[in-house]
Amino acid sequence: MRTHARPWWQRALLTREMLTILILVVAWVVAVSVVQGFDGPLTITYLVLDVAPVLLIALPMTLIIATGEIDLSVASVVGLSSVTFGLLYQAGLGLWPALLVSVLVGAVCGAVNGALVAYGGLPSLAVTIGSLALYRGLAVGLLGTTAVTGFPETWTDGATENLGETPYPAITLGLLALVAVFAVLLHATPFGRNVLDIGRSKEAARFSGVDVRRTLLILFVLSGAVSALAGVYYTLRYGSARGDNATGMELQVVAAVLLGGVSIFGGRGAIHGVVAGVLLIGVLGSALRLEGVTVNVINIVIGTALVVSVVAPRIAGGLRVRRRNAVTPDEPPRLAAGPPGDPDGSPAAGQRT
């Protein structure tokens, strides 16, 4: 393979993921140096609390985008699961059963998306834009403009309390566990290799024995269930179940995943890069809020980062192809092994050398 022609240290360090980690370190150093109050322990506490739901949703989103699909309904599933959790608690159901039912509702929402995309052959962008409006409408319709509050303090405090005397919230342990699970799933299992093969070429993956439809369905169910879990956390953290909870969060999730090195065309991605992308979005947001910047300006910054994360790899890939052709002008041009528009030229499933 062409990628293995480089030394191992180049393959490990000269990647999009390592670039994101480097930018994260630089952003943190600059924020600590420039923004007053950013270097305190409360910064770490609130940074983790703020990025927790984004990171939760970004983990299954990484696998979905790696297949070349997308799920824009995640934030509305957060709102619907929040409302479900609140209404069930208000009706007298225990918190643990309410949590399980809420996660089940999220899984059903994901199954609907997955069935329409995988078995209905519909584009995921159109399907999840429609379900975004549907699930948000259900959430607001069920609860209206009111909110369910009065959750037990043991649960609300548990969502925000720290680990002993450290500045790290207890939720950090759960996040680390889920990051490890998804990292193993993507990078160390046949299922993860199938996900990347689908992103490189669905047809080649199908001919090599991958059940493409079932894999996509599983990924959308995972996305719905984890988004619902994030909705329960969101509810307990703020002590309020509302239909408009997490409105617009899908922008942060997609931006973080793409900043983390996952190709929007599918076929490549790494969990450690996505974690760095989520933290980068969190650091930028925290620093700008401490400087008194409004939410609208923060959204502009995140949107700009999203556009750059899509355009930059495309430009870099074009420059690499030009340089390669200029060095070997007598050789016939190489056909791209990846999907049309993939700047990496990643080999398709069944085309590895």
UniProtKB/TrEMBL annotation:
Keywords annotated in UniProt: Cell inner membrane, Cell membrane, Membrane, Transmembrane, Transmembrane helix, Transport
Span of the signal peptide: none
Subcellular location(s) per record: Cell membrane
Residue numbers spanned by region Disordered: 326-353
Pfam families reported in the protein's UniProt record: BPD_transp_2
Residue stretches spanning the membrane: 21-38, 44-65, 72-89, 95-121, 133-151, 171-196, 216-236, 248-266, 273-290, 296-316
Coarse class of the protein's main subcellular location: membrane
InterPro entries with a match to the protein in the record: ABC_transp_permease
Low complexity: compositionally biased ranges: 336-353
Membrane topology: Multi-pass membrane protein
Presence of keyword Transcription regulation: no
Full protein name: Autoinducer 2 import system permease protein LsrD
Protein source organism: Promicromonospora aerolata
